[in-house]
Design a protein that fits this description.
- The chain is an alpha/beta fold.
- It has a single domain, classed as Rossmann fold (3-Layer(aba) Sandwich).
- Helix content is 26%, strand content 38%.
- The chain contains 4 helices and 9 strands, in the order ββααβαββββαββ.
- It has a 7-stranded mixed beta sheet, sandwiched between helices. Strands 1-2 form a two-stranded antiparallel ribbon.
- The mean pLDDT is 96.
Amino acid sequence: MDLAQHIRTIPDFPKPGILFYDISTLLAHPKAWRSCVGQLSDVVKGWNPDLLVGIESRGFLTAAPLSLELDLGFAMVRKKGKLPGETVSHVYELEYGTDTVEIQADAIAPGQKVVILDDLMATGGTMTAAIELVQKVGGEVVGVACIIELVGLGGRDELDVPFETLVQFEV
């Protein structure tokens, strides 16, 4: 199934000049969503992970059903202050300033093989931060996957782990 047919674009969101790639229409189409999860399953199981990690927030939509499909656990990487209990944080650079992501301190056992998922790869900043955070708590990142890759923004080039995507859009 051509998943790109189920992803709409919304111009000037969240601000003028940005073309937003919206997976809401993919999620609303059960056959397309099932195909997406199936395609991600084929990619991810090849890495033989112990655990899936989803990046806030649309990465949760990708990783949670996939963890059920593959009979794996699921952990969340969230923005600072959103997770209960003891957390480990990682500060990373943005174009203008910094941001912080966190994971619960006990979410990943040392040496666990982890695949990180998000809906979209653009510049790679958030994904790189999630990789570094998972490594910081002792996980081994064996791969990362996204539904969409925006080719031309250099995100793939920022990664030092295997990366797969289902749909590519030139920007």
